[in-house]
User: Fold this.
Amino acid sequence: MVVNNDFAALSASVNFYNNDQLIGSAQANDIQFEQARQVWVEYQLPAGTSRITASLSDIIVKKNNGERSQIPNEEAAGSLAVKEFQIDLDTDGDEVGNIQDSDDDNDGLEDVREQELGTDPLKIDTDADGLADGDEVRLALDPRKSDTDGDGRTDKEDLFPADKDEWADADQDAQGDNADPDDDNDKLPDADEAALGSDPHQADTDGDGLADGEEKEKGSDPTKSDSDGDGISDPDEIKAGTKPDQADTDGDGLTDLEEKEGRTNPNQPDTDLDGVSDGDEVKRGTDPTNTDTDGDGVDDLSDQFPLDQREARDTDRDGSGDNADPDDDNDKVSDQDEESSGSDPAKIDTDGDQYLYVGASLSFLAFLAVAALYAKGRGRQ
Assistant:
């Protein structure tokens, strides 16, 4: 409060100090005789003891005769106002004021010790690296440096914060990755992983359930969950006993997936052991799991009509099954006549004497005659 008890009017600058440090100034203008003016500056008192003083400067007065003059600052020294404040905080919220609290920030280090180390007693983590000052001291780290060993990783993220050559340990075996020849402990050395393109920090690069080392051992690709692209994952192939790096394990013309869907054996090229491979049976339309698809009593290998229960053979290969063909051997003598005469309807020359039956065509006889003459003529040469 500035009071004018001596002059017709008074103007001055009011300067505020905390512990002799200027904190702000305010102007009090034209205060009339025996009047007072409240003057202030906004300021938040810090923790601890504050000695607040206010003094006048640049004092201009107006006398009763209207004359104006300036009063030297040193003559205004008696106008100094002083007030002392004691501000206590509870930085760590433990309901003990900092004045009485030996560890203001509750970081595990006494304030006295923090002063010795040069850390901030009001900050739990002076270097802002994510570790409390007390924890850093216990770990023999520098609480004033966020990266104690200077390897480019903060002390909190660095698994070896005091070793500039190590910072990570993918397989958590207590050996840093830089020194560890197999960072992820997948039984596949990092050098091999680099050559294969797999991740040396991931035990199972392709996420198929097989460790990269096991994949190499089994012949599969650690970067692909289905190495041979046959639609069956590598782990499932290994369980089934098929080869994860070959789409057709048994080489029968059917992929392992096709065999799985068709319920054939992917490790056996001829599932029903009828002499016809599974792939050929599928092409023919026969059942690779059934030796006699049409159930006519003749296996699929021997059956010339494996899908026709009424037919199995075509003696003369004319496309008509023997059961439906009236002349099985195509000797121009019907099967009925051959059976009546006792000849074999499945043989064009039953007795093998090179003479055909009366019913044989003359064209065929002529062919035999020409062949005989030809043979006789070559014998004379």
Summary: Residues 358-367 have pLDDT under 50 and may be disordered. Residues 329-381 form one domain. The two ends are 156 Å apart (CA to CA).
